[in-house]
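Can you make up a protein sequence with its C-alpha coordinates?

===
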Amino acid sequence: MGEIFSFAYDTFIANKARFALTALGMVIGTASLILVVTIGLTGKQYILNQIQGIGANLIFASYAGGGPRITAVPLDELTVDDIIAVREQVPSVVSASPFVPLRDRINMGNGKEQDILVLGVFPEYSQVRNLVLLAGRFFDTEDLQGRNKVGVITEKLAVKLFRTPESAVGQVIKLSGLPFAVIGVFKERVETFGQSEVEDNTMAIPYSVSRFFLPSNAVRQIYFTVASPDEVTAATAQIKWVLQLRHRPESVYNVENLTPLVNLAEKTANILTVVLLLIAAVVLLVSGIGIMNIMLATVSARTREIGIRRAFGATKREIRFQFLSEAILIALVGGVLGIIIGLAIPFSVRYFTAYRIPISGLSAIIAIGVSSLVGILFGTVPAIRAAQLDPVESLRYE
Protein backbone atom coordinates (compact mmCIF):
# COMPACT_ATOMS: atom_id res chain seq x y z
CA MET A 1 0.00 0.00 0.00
CA GLY A 2 2.88 2.36 0.78
CA GLU A 3 4.32 1.81 -2.68
CA ILE A 4 0.92 2.42 -4.29
CA PHE A 5 0.37 5.73 -2.49
CA SER A 6 3.98 6.76 -3.14
CA PHE A 7 3.47 6.14 -6.85
CA ALA A 8 0.20 8.09 -6.75
CA TYR A 9 2.02 11.00 -5.12
CA ASP A 10 4.69 10.96 -7.81
CA THR A 11 2.00 10.96 -10.48
CA PHE A 12 0.39 14.06 -9.04
CA ILE A 13 3.70 15.86 -8.69
CA ALA A 14 4.19 15.33 -12.40
CA ASN A 15 0.65 16.64 -13.16
CA LYS A 16 0.17 19.45 -10.63
CA ALA A 17 -2.27 21.55 -12.66
CA ARG A 18 -4.60 18.62 -13.39
CA PHE A 19 -4.44 17.51 -9.77
CA ALA A 20 -5.19 21.03 -8.43
CA LEU A 21 -8.14 21.61 -10.75
CA THR A 22 -9.61 18.20 -9.94
CA ALA A 23 -9.24 18.74 -6.19
CA LEU A 24 -10.77 22.24 -6.40
CA GLY A 25 -14.29 20.84 -6.57
CA MET A 26 -13.71 18.86 -3.38
CA VAL A 27 -12.28 21.96 -1.68
CA ILE A 28 -15.40 23.97 -2.49
CA GLY A 29 -17.79 21.14 -1.59
CA THR A 30 -16.14 20.32 1.75
CA ALA A 31 -15.80 23.98 2.76
CA SER A 32 -19.47 24.48 1.84
CA LEU A 33 -20.50 21.55 4.03
CA ILE A 34 -18.72 22.97 7.09
CA LEU A 35 -19.96 26.50 6.46
CA VAL A 36 -23.52 25.23 6.04
CA VAL A 37 -23.40 23.53 9.44
CA THR A 38 -21.91 26.70 10.93
CA ILE A 39 -24.66 28.84 9.41
CA GLY A 40 -27.32 26.47 10.73
CA LEU A 41 -25.87 26.48 14.25
CA THR A 42 -25.47 30.26 14.18
CA GLY A 43 -29.06 30.74 13.09
CA LYS A 44 -30.34 28.40 15.78
CA GLN A 45 -28.25 30.13 18.46
CA TYR A 46 -29.45 33.57 17.35
CA ILE A 47 -33.12 32.57 17.40
CA LEU A 48 -32.83 30.91 20.82
CA ASN A 49 -31.00 33.94 22.21
CA GLN A 50 -33.76 36.20 20.91
CA ILE A 51 -36.42 34.06 22.55
CA GLN A 52 -34.52 33.79 25.83
CA GLY A 53 -33.97 37.55 25.76
CA ILE A 54 -37.71 38.06 26.17
CA GLY A 55 -37.47 36.49 29.61
CA ALA A 56 -35.32 33.79 31.11
CA ASN A 57 -37.36 30.64 31.86
CA LEU A 58 -40.56 32.65 31.53
CA ILE A 59 -44.06 31.41 32.39
CA PHE A 60 -47.06 33.70 32.00
CA ALA A 61 -50.60 33.29 33.32
CA SER A 62 -53.76 35.18 32.38
CA TYR A 63 -57.50 34.96 32.86
CA ALA A 64 -59.26 33.64 29.76
CA GLY A 65 -62.84 33.89 31.03
CA GLY A 66 -65.45 31.64 32.58
CA GLY A 67 -67.84 29.04 31.25
CA PRO A 68 -71.30 29.93 29.94
CA ARG A 69 -73.77 30.99 32.64
CA ILE A 70 -77.35 32.21 32.53
CA THR A 71 -77.03 34.35 35.64
CA ALA A 72 -74.55 37.23 35.75
CA VAL A 73 -71.55 36.57 37.98
CA PRO A 74 -68.49 38.73 38.63
CA LEU A 75 -65.28 38.02 36.76
CA ASP A 76 -62.92 35.58 38.40
CA GLU A 77 -59.71 37.39 37.48
CA LEU A 78 -56.19 36.87 38.78
CA THR A 79 -54.95 38.85 41.78
CA VAL A 80 -51.73 39.37 43.74
CA ASP A 81 -52.98 36.71 46.19
CA ASP A 82 -52.55 34.17 43.39
CA ILE A 83 -48.86 35.11 43.17
CA ILE A 84 -48.44 34.51 46.89
CA ALA A 85 -50.17 31.13 46.67
CA VAL A 86 -48.09 29.99 43.69
CA ARG A 87 -44.83 30.99 45.34
CA GLU A 88 -45.81 29.03 48.44
CA GLN A 89 -46.85 25.88 46.60
CA VAL A 90 -44.49 25.81 43.59
CA PRO A 91 -40.93 25.82 44.97
CA SER A 92 -39.28 26.06 41.54
CA VAL A 93 -40.65 29.60 41.04
CA VAL A 94 -37.89 32.07 41.94
CA SER A 95 -39.54 35.36 40.98
CA ALA A 96 -42.90 36.70 39.90
CA SER A 97 -44.59 39.94 38.95
CA PRO A 98 -48.06 41.01 37.90
CA PHE A 99 -48.69 43.78 35.46
CA VAL A 100 -51.69 46.05 35.02
CA PRO A 101 -51.87 48.44 32.06
CA LEU A 102 -53.02 52.05 32.42
CA ARG A 103 -53.23 54.85 29.87
CA ASP A 104 -52.53 58.53 30.43
CA ARG A 105 -51.44 61.69 28.64
CA ILE A 106 -48.39 63.62 29.72
CA ASN A 107 -47.21 67.13 28.94
CA MET A 108 -44.42 67.28 26.35
CA GLY A 109 -43.94 71.05 26.59
CA ASN A 110 -44.84 73.73 24.07
CA GLY A 111 -48.49 72.83 24.50
CA LYS A 112 -47.98 69.26 23.22
CA GLU A 113 -49.15 66.07 24.89
CA GLN A 114 -48.14 62.43 24.53
CA ASP A 115 -50.11 59.24 25.14
CA ILE A 116 -48.15 56.79 27.27
CA LEU A 117 -48.68 53.32 28.65
CA VAL A 118 -48.23 52.95 32.40
CA LEU A 119 -47.49 49.47 33.79
CA GLY A 120 -48.05 48.66 37.44
CA VAL A 121 -45.51 45.96 38.30
CA PHE A 122 -43.40 44.46 41.08
CA PRO A 123 -39.68 45.23 41.44
CA GLU A 124 -39.02 41.65 40.23
CA TYR A 125 -40.44 42.62 36.84
CA SER A 126 -36.96 43.70 35.78
CA GLN A 127 -35.54 40.18 36.34
CA VAL A 128 -38.63 38.36 35.09
CA ARG A 129 -38.65 40.22 31.77
CA ASN A 130 -34.86 40.30 31.52
CA LEU A 131 -34.78 44.08 31.03
CA VAL A 132 -31.63 46.11 30.37
CA LEU A 133 -31.18 49.12 32.65
CA LEU A 134 -29.52 51.95 30.72
CA ALA A 135 -29.44 54.59 33.45
CA GLY A 136 -30.43 54.93 37.10
CA ARG A 137 -32.08 52.02 38.88
CA PHE A 138 -35.27 50.00 38.95
CA PHE A 139 -37.60 50.59 41.89
CA ASP A 140 -37.15 48.17 44.80
CA THR A 141 -39.18 46.56 47.58
CA GLU A 142 -38.96 49.70 49.74
CA ASP A 143 -40.49 51.76 46.93
CA LEU A 144 -43.26 49.15 46.57
CA GLN A 145 -44.05 48.97 50.28
CA GLY A 146 -43.72 52.72 50.79
CA ARG A 147 -45.94 53.45 47.76
CA ASN A 148 -43.29 55.84 46.49
CA LYS A 149 -44.24 57.78 43.40
CA VAL A 150 -41.31 56.70 41.26
CA GLY A 151 -41.04 55.09 37.89
CA VAL A 152 -38.77 53.92 35.10
CA ILE A 153 -39.30 54.77 31.46
CA THR A 154 -38.27 53.24 28.13
CA GLU A 155 -35.23 54.49 26.27
CA LYS A 156 -37.31 55.86 23.40
CA LEU A 157 -39.56 57.82 25.76
CA ALA A 158 -36.50 59.17 27.62
CA VAL A 159 -34.94 60.39 24.37
CA LYS A 160 -38.22 61.94 23.26
CA LEU A 161 -38.76 63.80 26.54
CA PHE A 162 -35.26 64.49 27.83
CA ARG A 163 -32.90 63.81 24.86
CA THR A 164 -30.72 61.20 26.59
CA PRO A 165 -31.35 58.35 29.09
CA GLU A 166 -28.88 59.85 31.57
CA SER A 167 -30.57 63.25 31.61
CA ALA A 168 -33.97 61.61 32.19
CA VAL A 169 -32.96 60.32 35.65
CA GLY A 170 -34.21 62.72 38.32
CA GLN A 171 -36.84 64.35 36.09
CA VAL A 172 -40.54 64.45 37.01
CA ILE A 173 -43.47 63.13 34.98
CA LYS A 174 -47.02 63.88 36.11
CA LEU A 175 -49.62 61.13 35.92
CA SER A 176 -53.18 62.34 36.59
CA GLY A 177 -51.66 65.42 38.20
CA LEU A 178 -49.42 63.40 40.55
CA PRO A 179 -45.65 63.92 40.21
CA PHE A 180 -43.60 60.75 39.61
CA ALA A 181 -39.81 60.89 39.82
CA VAL A 182 -37.99 59.11 36.99
CA ILE A 183 -35.37 56.94 38.69
CA GLY A 184 -34.29 54.79 35.75
CA VAL A 185 -34.35 54.16 32.02
CA PHE A 186 -34.69 50.66 30.54
CA LYS A 187 -35.15 48.74 27.33
CA GLU A 188 -36.07 45.19 26.41
CA ARG A 189 -33.07 42.94 25.89
CA VAL A 190 -34.28 41.97 22.41
CA GLU A 191 -36.51 43.77 19.94
CA THR A 192 -40.08 42.40 20.23
CA PHE A 193 -41.52 44.65 17.47
CA GLY A 194 -44.50 45.64 19.61
CA GLN A 195 -45.47 42.04 20.38
CA SER A 196 -45.00 42.40 24.15
CA GLU A 197 -46.70 44.54 26.78
CA VAL A 198 -43.87 47.12 26.55
CA GLU A 199 -44.48 49.86 23.99
CA ASP A 200 -42.16 52.63 22.83
CA ASN A 201 -43.76 55.12 25.24
CA THR A 202 -44.00 53.08 28.42
CA MET A 203 -43.50 53.93 32.09
CA ALA A 204 -43.36 51.27 34.82
CA ILE A 205 -44.43 52.21 38.34
CA PRO A 206 -44.80 50.19 41.58
CA TYR A 207 -47.93 48.04 41.58
CA SER A 208 -48.92 49.41 45.02
CA VAL A 209 -49.08 52.92 43.53
CA SER A 210 -50.98 51.80 40.44
CA ARG A 211 -53.73 50.51 42.78
CA PHE A 212 -54.73 54.17 43.32
CA PHE A 213 -55.94 54.26 39.71
CA LEU A 214 -57.60 50.80 39.57
CA PRO A 215 -61.21 49.93 40.33
CA SER A 216 -60.29 46.43 41.63
CA ASN A 217 -57.31 44.34 42.68
CA ALA A 218 -57.39 42.28 39.45
CA VAL A 219 -54.25 42.04 37.35
CA ARG A 220 -54.01 41.58 33.59
CA GLN A 221 -51.26 38.98 33.61
CA ILE A 222 -48.72 37.37 35.93
CA TYR A 223 -45.16 36.51 34.97
CA PHE A 224 -43.20 33.76 36.70
CA THR A 225 -39.63 32.55 36.26
CA VAL A 226 -38.12 29.28 37.44
CA ALA A 227 -34.56 28.41 38.35
CA SER A 228 -33.81 26.10 35.42
CA PRO A 229 -35.16 25.59 31.88
CA ASP A 230 -35.66 21.92 32.77
CA GLU A 231 -38.28 22.94 35.33
CA VAL A 232 -40.38 25.10 33.02
CA THR A 233 -42.79 22.40 31.80
CA ALA A 234 -43.44 20.94 35.25
CA ALA A 235 -43.80 24.37 36.85
CA THR A 236 -46.29 25.43 34.17
CA ALA A 237 -48.57 22.51 35.02
CA GLN A 238 -48.21 23.13 38.77
CA ILE A 239 -49.02 26.84 38.43
CA LYS A 240 -52.14 26.09 36.42
CA TRP A 241 -53.23 23.53 39.01
CA VAL A 242 -52.79 26.06 41.85
CA LEU A 243 -54.73 28.76 39.99
CA GLN A 244 -57.62 26.44 39.10
CA LEU A 245 -57.77 25.25 42.68
CA ARG A 246 -58.11 28.81 43.99
CA HIS A 247 -60.90 29.87 41.61
CA ARG A 248 -64.25 28.69 40.36
CA PRO A 249 -64.20 25.37 38.44
CA GLU A 250 -65.64 26.92 35.29
CA SER A 251 -63.04 29.71 35.16
CA VAL A 252 -60.41 29.31 32.49
CA TYR A 253 -56.78 30.40 32.86
CA ASN A 254 -54.06 30.31 30.27
CA VAL A 255 -50.71 29.30 31.70
CA GLU A 256 -48.07 29.19 28.97
CA ASN A 257 -44.33 29.29 28.44
CA LEU A 258 -41.86 29.81 25.62
CA THR A 259 -41.09 26.10 25.15
CA PRO A 260 -43.31 25.66 22.03
CA LEU A 261 -41.66 28.71 20.48
CA VAL A 262 -38.20 27.35 21.29
CA ASN A 263 -39.08 23.95 19.81
CA LEU A 264 -40.46 25.58 16.67
CA ALA A 265 -37.30 27.67 16.30
CA GLU A 266 -35.10 24.59 16.68
CA LYS A 267 -37.13 22.64 14.10
CA THR A 268 -37.01 25.55 11.66
CA ALA A 269 -33.25 25.91 12.08
CA ASN A 270 -32.75 22.15 11.65
CA ILE A 271 -34.85 22.08 8.47
CA LEU A 272 -32.87 25.02 7.08
CA THR A 273 -29.61 23.21 7.89
CA VAL A 274 -30.80 20.04 6.14
CA VAL A 275 -31.76 22.02 3.02
CA LEU A 276 -28.37 23.72 2.94
CA LEU A 277 -26.63 20.38 3.49
CA LEU A 278 -28.45 18.94 0.48
CA ILE A 279 -27.13 21.84 -1.59
CA ALA A 280 -23.60 21.13 -0.30
CA ALA A 281 -24.12 17.45 -1.13
CA VAL A 282 -24.92 18.40 -4.74
CA VAL A 283 -21.64 20.34 -4.89
CA LEU A 284 -19.78 17.28 -3.57
CA LEU A 285 -21.60 15.07 -6.09
CA VAL A 286 -20.54 17.32 -8.95
CA SER A 287 -16.95 17.32 -7.70
CA GLY A 288 -17.07 13.51 -7.44
CA ILE A 289 -18.22 13.27 -11.04
CA GLY A 290 -15.36 15.56 -11.97
CA ILE A 291 -12.90 13.22 -10.25
CA MET A 292 -14.36 10.25 -12.12
CA ASN A 293 -14.11 12.00 -15.48
CA ILE A 294 -10.51 13.03 -14.89
CA MET A 295 -9.57 9.52 -13.73
CA LEU A 296 -11.24 7.98 -16.79
CA ALA A 297 -9.24 10.32 -18.98
CA THR A 298 -6.13 9.38 -17.00
CA VAL A 299 -6.76 5.68 -17.63
CA SER A 300 -6.89 6.33 -21.38
CA ALA A 301 -3.73 8.46 -21.27
CA ARG A 302 -1.83 5.85 -19.24
CA THR A 303 -2.94 2.72 -21.07
CA ARG A 304 0.59 1.88 -22.22
CA GLU A 305 1.87 2.39 -18.64
CA ILE A 306 -0.78 -0.06 -17.41
CA GLY A 307 0.39 -2.60 -20.01
CA ILE A 308 4.01 -2.25 -18.87
CA ARG A 309 3.03 -2.69 -15.20
CA ARG A 310 1.01 -5.78 -16.07
CA ALA A 311 3.95 -7.15 -18.09
CA PHE A 312 6.19 -6.80 -15.05
CA GLY A 313 3.79 -8.82 -12.93
CA ALA A 314 1.26 -6.33 -11.54
CA THR A 315 -2.08 -8.00 -10.84
CA LYS A 316 -5.53 -6.63 -11.65
CA ARG A 317 -6.01 -6.00 -7.94
CA GLU A 318 -2.85 -3.88 -7.75
CA ILE A 319 -3.84 -1.86 -10.82
CA ARG A 320 -7.28 -1.33 -9.35
CA PHE A 321 -5.84 -0.14 -6.06
CA GLN A 322 -3.38 2.09 -7.91
CA PHE A 323 -6.07 4.16 -9.60
CA LEU A 324 -8.44 3.98 -6.64
CA SER A 325 -5.71 5.35 -4.37
CA GLU A 326 -5.17 8.26 -6.75
CA ALA A 327 -8.88 9.13 -6.65
CA ILE A 328 -8.96 8.87 -2.87
CA LEU A 329 -5.83 11.02 -2.59
CA ILE A 330 -7.43 13.73 -4.74
CA ALA A 331 -10.58 13.64 -2.61
CA LEU A 332 -8.69 13.65 0.70
CA VAL A 333 -6.36 16.51 -0.22
CA GLY A 334 -9.32 18.55 -1.48
CA GLY A 335 -11.31 17.62 1.61
CA VAL A 336 -8.55 18.62 4.03
CA LEU A 337 -8.05 21.97 2.28
CA GLY A 338 -11.81 22.50 2.29
CA ILE A 339 -11.96 21.76 6.03
CA ILE A 340 -9.17 24.24 6.70
CA ILE A 341 -10.97 26.94 4.72
CA GLY A 342 -14.37 26.05 6.19
CA LEU A 343 -13.04 26.32 9.76
CA ALA A 344 -10.81 29.33 9.11
CA ILE A 345 -13.74 31.57 8.15
CA PRO A 346 -15.78 31.19 11.40
CA PHE A 347 -12.60 31.22 13.51
CA SER A 348 -11.61 34.50 11.83
CA VAL A 349 -15.03 35.98 12.59
CA ARG A 350 -14.67 34.97 16.24
CA TYR A 351 -11.14 36.34 16.44
CA PHE A 352 -11.64 39.68 14.69
CA THR A 353 -15.20 40.48 15.84
CA ALA A 354 -17.32 40.17 18.96
CA TYR A 355 -19.60 37.55 17.42
CA ARG A 356 -19.23 34.13 19.05
CA ILE A 357 -20.10 31.96 16.07
CA PRO A 358 -20.55 28.31 17.08
CA ILE A 359 -18.10 25.91 15.44
CA SER A 360 -18.87 22.21 15.06
CA GLY A 361 -15.92 19.84 15.24
CA LEU A 362 -18.28 17.04 14.22
CA SER A 363 -18.85 18.73 10.86
CA ALA A 364 -15.09 18.51 10.14
CA ILE A 365 -15.10 14.78 10.96
CA ILE A 366 -18.15 14.23 8.75
CA ALA A 367 -16.53 16.27 5.97
CA ILE A 368 -13.36 14.16 5.91
CA GLY A 369 -15.49 10.99 5.93
CA VAL A 370 -17.60 12.27 3.06
CA SER A 371 -14.47 13.21 1.11
CA SER A 372 -13.09 9.69 1.47
CA LEU A 373 -16.43 8.21 0.49
CA VAL A 374 -16.61 10.40 -2.64
CA GLY A 375 -13.10 9.31 -3.62
CA ILE A 376 -13.97 5.65 -3.19
CA LEU A 377 -17.32 5.80 -4.97
CA PHE A 378 -16.24 7.87 -7.96
CA GLY A 379 -12.78 6.30 -8.21
CA THR A 380 -14.09 2.74 -8.41
CA VAL A 381 -15.30 2.88 -12.04
CA PRO A 382 -11.99 4.21 -13.46
CA ALA A 383 -10.04 1.75 -11.30
CA ILE A 384 -12.09 -1.23 -12.53
CA ARG A 385 -11.74 -0.06 -16.11
CA ALA A 386 -7.95 0.20 -15.74
CA ALA A 387 -7.73 -3.28 -14.19
CA GLN A 388 -9.75 -4.84 -17.01
CA LEU A 389 -7.50 -3.58 -19.81
CA ASP A 390 -5.82 -6.34 -21.83
CA PRO A 391 -2.04 -6.26 -21.18
CA VAL A 392 -1.09 -7.09 -24.80
CA GLU A 393 -3.43 -4.45 -26.28
CA SER A 394 -2.23 -1.94 -23.68
CA LEU A 395 1.41 -2.42 -24.76
CA ARG A 396 0.42 -1.79 -28.38
CA TYR A 397 -1.53 1.37 -27.43
CA GLU A 398 -0.09 4.63 -28.79
About this structure: The radius of gyration is 34 Å. The chain has a mean pLDDT of 82. The beta strands are 58-65, 93-109, 112-121, 131-136, 150-154, 172-175, 178-188, 202-206, 221-226, 252-257.
